[in-house]
Design a protein that fits this description.
10 helices; Nucleotidyltransferase, domain 5; about 350 residues; alpha+beta
Length: about 350
């Protein structure tokens, strides 16, 4: 059921890079003893998560990109495919949608977070609705096609992670330290209101961390985004600490069971080398728009000038030809609401 309460625009923080670093962490171990064991386990984990059928060039590319040689993009998709929500992985909506564009020459990363209620055209069904419905209509293929249509840049790689990974990863680390902003009585992973947290700095387990990341009813989506960034930073800090080395095997298992990607193990190693060469300069972009309840259903209506500006920035980052305008068809789809036929 569509949420009818207007949601404020989301912002993306610099800490989203931790998502990329964390997903690629297991590719860093290459020699010696326990590290060699982790390398082999990492290779097996990557193979389990790897979808070779989608490891092809983007429809907006003439040739497939080569990591560490070409500029490229990675789409990060967070989904909730819990049985409690009666969706399943093929019908789950995306809860988080982020595109990272990497420029090899300048060692920069441009990050854009697409608000999940953004009203846009979904090519797989040939009409417009919320962008998070694209995954429900046609999985990752529909999501990639929709993002490419909105931003007019290629999606070269994707990483799709479900909520179970979030819970399992935090538990594999034996919990993380977070600052809970206020007392919480929140839903757990089974949509039961069993999570109770008091305000303040404390250790939380996976189910508590997920509840903290999800909640937004006491403040706003902007604050929710800040909490998610805090949690990502806590995960990355704990995962990269020397005390967590013995937990990497469990971390890999957690990722392997809950992640799908079109990146091969070799690609992951190349991207980790990109990160390892030094902290990249990270630029956060945002899509501006306005709340729309004119149909009785909440949409986040994107402003054409903002979409064009974001397109141009991403195209510059990938060193692609820049758009000078949004064509008439896209203009209509950005500014007008059709009949919502959400499954």
């Amino acid at each position: 059921m569509d949420e009818k309460k207007p949601q404020k625009k989301r912002r993306i923080g610099r800490l989203v890079v931790y998502t990329l670093v964390f997903v690629l962490t297991f590719a860093a171990f290459t020699v010696g003893g326990y590290a060699y064991y982790l390398y082999e386990k990492g290779e097996k984990t990557a193979a389990k998560s790897y979808d070779a059928s989608r490891d092809v060039k983007s429809s907006l590319r003439e040739e497939k990109v080569e990591p560490l040689e070409d500029n490229l993009s990675i789409l990060i998709v967070g989904i909730d495919d819990s049985t409690e929500r009666a969706q399943g992985s093929n019908h789950a909506r995306s809860d988080a949608l982020m595109l990272a564009t990497l420029n090899n020459k300048h060692k920069t990363i441009d990050l854009i977070s697409i608000p999940r209620d953004s009203y846009t055209f979904i090519p797989s069904v040939n009409y417009a609705t919320k962008i998070n419905h694209a995954h429900a209509f046609g999985g990752i293929d529909s999501t990639i096609e929709t993002v490419q249509n909105l931003l007019n840049v290629p999606v070269d790689y994707y990483v799709e992670v479900n909520f179970n990974a979030f819970i399992d990863v935090v538990n594999a680390l034996d919990g993380i330290t977070v600052d809970v902003p206020y007392d919480l009585h929140e839903l757990d992973e089974h949509d039961k209101r069993t999570v109770n947290l008091k305000a303040g700095v404390q250790e939380v387990d996976g189910r508590e961390a997920l509840a903290l990341a999800r909640t937004r009813h006491q403040d706003s989506d902007i604050e929710r985004g800040k909490r998610q960034q805090m949690i990502l930073e806590a995960i990355a800090t704990k995962a990269m600490s020397t005390s967590s080395v013995t937990k990497y095997s469990s971390l890999m298992t957690a990722l392997g069971d809950n992640m799908t990607t079109n990146m091969s193990f070799d690609t992951m190693k190349s991207l980790f080398a990109y990160m390892q060469a030094g902290q990249p300069e990270i630029n956060s972009l945002s899509l501006e728009g306005y709340d729309d309840m004119s149909t009785g259903i909440y949409y986040y209506k994107l402003r054409q000038d903002s979409v064009l500006a974001v397109r141009q920035k991403l195209q510059q980052q990938l060193e692609l030809p820049e758009d000078t305008e949004i064509n008439a068809d896209n203009s209509y789809l950005l500014d007008h609401v059709s009949n919502d036929k959400t499954p």
